[in-house]
From TrEMBL, chains A, B:
<dbReference type="GO" id="GO:0006508">
    <property type="term" value="P:proteolysis"/>
</dbReference>
<dbReference type="InterPro" id="IPR005320">
    <property type="entry name" value="Peptidase_S51"/>
</dbReference>
<dbReference type="Pfam" id="PF03575">
    <property type="entry name" value="Peptidase_S51"/>
</dbReference>
<keyword id="KW-0378">Hydrolase</keyword>
<keyword id="KW-0224">Dipeptidase</keyword>
<keyword id="KW-0645">Protease</keyword>
<keyword id="KW-0720">Serine protease</keyword>
<dbReference type="GO" id="GO:0016805">
    <property type="term" value="F:dipeptidase activity"/>
</dbReference>
<protein>
    <submittedName>
        <fullName>Dipeptidase PepE</fullName>
        <ecNumber>3.4.13.21</ecNumber>
    </submittedName>
</protein>
<dbReference type="InterPro" id="IPR029062">
    <property type="entry name" value="Class_I_gatase-like"/>
</dbReference>
<dbReference type="GO" id="GO:0008236">
    <property type="term" value="F:serine-type peptidase activity"/>
</dbReference>
<comment type="similarity">
    <text>Belongs to the peptidase S51 family.</text>
</comment>
Amino acid sequence: MELLLLSNSTSDDGYLVHALEAIRELADGRQDALFVPFAGVTRDWDDYTAQVRDALAPIGISVRGLHREADARAAIGSASLVIVGGGNTFRLLKCLREQQLLAPLAERLRAGGGPEGLRYVGWSAGSVITSPTIRTTNDMPIVDPGGLDSLGLMPFQFNCHYFNLVVPGFRGETRDQRLAEFTVLSPEMSVLGLPEGDWVRVSGTRWTLHGEHAARWFLGERTIDIAAGALEMPR
Amino acid sequence: MELLLLSNSTSDDGYLVHALEAIRELADGRQDALFVPFAGVTRDWDDYTAQVRDALAPIGISVRGLHREADARAAIGSASLVIVGGGNTFRLLKCLREQQLLAPLAERLRAGGGPEGLRYVGWSAGSVITSPTIRTTNDMPIVDPGGLDSLGLMPFQFNCHYFNLVVPGFRGETRDQRLAEFTVLSPEMSVLGLPEGDWVRVSGTRWTLHGEHAARWFLGERTIDIAAGALEMPR
């Protein structure tokens, strides 16, 4: 598998600018990307696709939207580069499930990203769905996705936009409290809290964490902060 | 129906202290409360029940935990006051659904809260589940609740701990953006953003908003801020 999994899309320098070099490396010469805009809710899918198209033009990658394909399964079957944007994870999963795209996408990615193989870029919701389930999304369950299981490419859960902020006057749960609730009920499953601006590059069985901010593993009652570099699941 | 639906349980003065008078009024002489601790995840259900018991002792209400009842359905069937605490809304809904308590609870509450009738106090997750679904919860979907539909006592959705904070450096969605995603996909359904410290008292067909902070209705593309007083759904 060849995956690039970003925490988020925006940066101070502009949309996807912080990740352009990483996307170019992942693409490895591929120039035609299939964009999945299904996580977008308050934005038009054509507009969302155009935004990504504009962002990737400087690195010579053209972008077409999956929602405009007459046969979505065929489009997934023949693509060489799939890009899955963020938004609402429940909406994304619902659309992929309803169109029966989860299994074909996972199957092609697991088959490997060699010269003829499919490669994958995701951010936010697009990263979360590579986990076994979406049970560590931050998003509101605005639609019923028909089950929380997702692509299951990675053996751990992503939590994107990770930070643990205590907001004065707010009496709800902090992010760490929410993730602790997850690990109490699923003590065997690791969660990677991926801060804004960071990403994980998956190449075969090798995982590498990139970015300025320490990420945080959650496993059972433990948390482990890790810096950029080779990434291994805690045991 | 006689319901008291709080945004949250904690206050600067102590646990549930801000709501004691409202709970006393709602109870209307009832002295034996059945507490539903199922939303608690990182806390022991006995401890959670004890915390609520201690909090309500000053107003002469004794509290027993539903999780200690041999026959939960029978306990719901004979209770005169049910209190549903906050925590994780998905966990709460999953437990209620698995134990087949949703329909009996809703049925008794709809039958009315007269002298022989059941009355209800909820906060946070315990308020959210009185909505048609839990699709406007802030909680993480740490377990699969087997569907998002809930008690459906109220004709609108609650969003508790409501605030719309823009956190510097955070590139995820604000609360208003999340709720806008909901209303885009469900334009016919109103959402009430209930700030910390506020509550809604439901008495038959009369609803009253209490608390210091303006609440916010979300309906389609509109938002409407409302002060304490008689509450009506926007049209």
